[in-house]
Amino acid sequence: MKKDKTQLIYGRHPVIDAINEGTNFDKIFLQQGTRGEFEKELRKLCNKHNIPLTVAPKEKLNKFTRSNHQGVIGLVSLIPYYLIEDLLPSIYENNENPLILILDGVTDVRNFGAIARSAEICGAHALVVPRKGSALINAEALKTSAGALTKIPVCRENSLITAIETIQMSGIKVMASSLKAEKLLFNFDLTEPVALIVGAEGEGISTGVERKADELFIIPQAGTTDSFNVSVATGIMLYEVMRQRMV
User: pTM for the full model?
Assistant: First the structure.
């Protein structure tokens, strides 16, 4: 199996073997124009194992390695990934009060790492991210998280909407940060099981995901600048949950 210092696995058989062996991938790149049985098998395995697959031109793949990659390169993840439906039972079995953080479209690795750091410090049980449109958890993300990404489970989901429905069916209230909200975060009872949704910097939470929330809230601000940085806003939310639960 070919693997280099940048955490790559490349070549058709090595990539397929690695997937079947349970290797965690952040993403797999498939060369544009690839067709046939290999492409079908790769897509099937990526769907089965919840691995993001991106079609890219040969030039992009060549930037990763000068070796013969045979049109496919996998970026090996530095952490394992989970599914929220598998984690929820253990949270309740341990008699813990669930606190879940759902990240919708947070792609900046430093923001992601900073969010993970705050989440772990404030006692969150898991981060939930979409399979597509989320930050790669690379060395920079790990460094920014101060190691938190090795302590808090990251759940990578095919559909955030389905994941939210699973969370709700487990008795957890889902709340979303929104500038359209009228009620302040601090006016909610956060001592009950709760999942918080935060969106991408600038774009916010996608419409479909926001509609699934049980409640919308806003963080008050005194100045006129548009909004808090996403990692700062998330830290405020998480700290308020922790504060209420410690009283």
Answer: 0.88
How far apart CA 149 and CA 112 sit, in angstroms, is 10
Residue with tokens 């099981």: 193
DSSP assigned state of 25:
E
For residue 114, the one-letter residue type is: A
Among residues 76, 104, 132, which one ends one of the domains? 76
DSSP 165: H
Domain check: are 47 and 108 in the same one? no
pLDDT classification of 226: cutoffs 50, 70, 90: confident
Mapped onto helix, strand or coil, the DSSP state of residue 125 is coil
Q: Tokens standing for 62?
A: 């060549």
At 210 the three-state DSSP class reads: helix
Per-residue confidence at 202, pLDDT binned at 50, 70, 90? confident
Domain count, the chain: 2
As beta bridge partners, residue 29 has 54, 73
How far is the C-alpha of 55 from the C-alpha of 28, rounded, in Å?
9
93 and 52 together in one domain: no
Indicate the helix (H) or strand (E) that contains 74: strand 72-76
Where is the domain boundary, 31, 55, 76?
A: 76
Buried b (16+ CB within 10 A) or exposed e, 73-104: bbbbbbbebbbbeebbeebeeeeebbbbbbbb
